[in-house]
Specification:
Helix content is 46%, strand content 14%. With 207 residues, it is of the alpha/beta class. Strands 5-4-1-6-7 form a five-stranded parallel beta sheet, with helices on both faces. Strands 2-3 form a two-stranded antiparallel ribbon. This is 2-haloacid dehalogenase.
């Protein structure tokens, strides 16, 4: 087949790695309403994404404290206890990754929204040694780009000479799936390893 898939690109957080700030903040802010205020108005997901796009963590932290001094302890904990927000690997997805890595038929890469400062920490951890299996990883914080911006998909395609018509991208965030498809890169919306395996097989990917 002319457009047979030969390259698989994985997102990391939510697909291969469990990450959840509540692992820290359920205990740090036990009151549910106060915790909701913190995530809705103080350290929001949009704020977190700015560090994934390259804003230095120290700068972002101090700026947030200047705006919300009463929340200083909680704001500092966001990155000060960041490692505790990492859960386990998604072992079902890691098994799929391993089967693709072991096959001579596929090239395997990763494209992740992740701070350039915290990603090396995860990569050095024993339970995430599969991060060393990829032929290449494009980290948003190193590129000053962010999914679903079209430029970040173009960047990984160009850097690793990937034919978008023979590749598929996997992400748990639907807006990133839409962003991928907008540049002509086929995408799978990840929900479970079992569903991912099924959808890859439908694309005639052997796992």
């Amino acid at each position: 087949m002319a457009n047979q898939i030969n390259t698989i690109i994985f997102d990391l957080g939510g697909v291969l790695i469990d990450w959840n700030p509540l692992y820290v903040f359920n205990d740090l802010i036990p009151d549910a309403e106060r915790r909701k205020e913190f995530f809705d108005n103080i350290c929001t997901m949009h704020w977190n994404e700015q560090q994934d796009a390259g804003t230095p963590i120290a700068q972002a932290t101090e700026e947030r404290i200047a705006l919300f001094p009463a929340w200083e302890n909680e704001i500092r904990a966001y990155y000060g206890r960041w490692v505790e927000m990492l859960g386990d690997a998604n072992h079902g997805t890691v098994e799929i990754l391993k089967s693709l890595i072991d096959s001579p038929d596929y090239r395997v890469y990763a494209l992740t929204n992740w701070s350039a400062e915290t990603f090396p920490i995860a990569k050095s951890m024993e339970r995430f040694q599969f991060l060393h299996w990829f032929e290449g990883i494009l980290v948003s914080g190193e590129e000053f780009l962010l999914k679903p911006q079209p430029e970040i998909y173009e960047a990984i395609l160009e850097r690793y000479d990937i034919d978008r018509h023979k590749a598929v991208f996997i992400d748990d965030n639907y807006k990133n799936v839409v962003g991928s498809e907008a540049v002509g890169l086929k995408a799978i919306h990840f929900t479970t390893p079992e569903k991912l395996a099924e959808e890859l097989r439908q694309l005639t990917v052997n796992i």
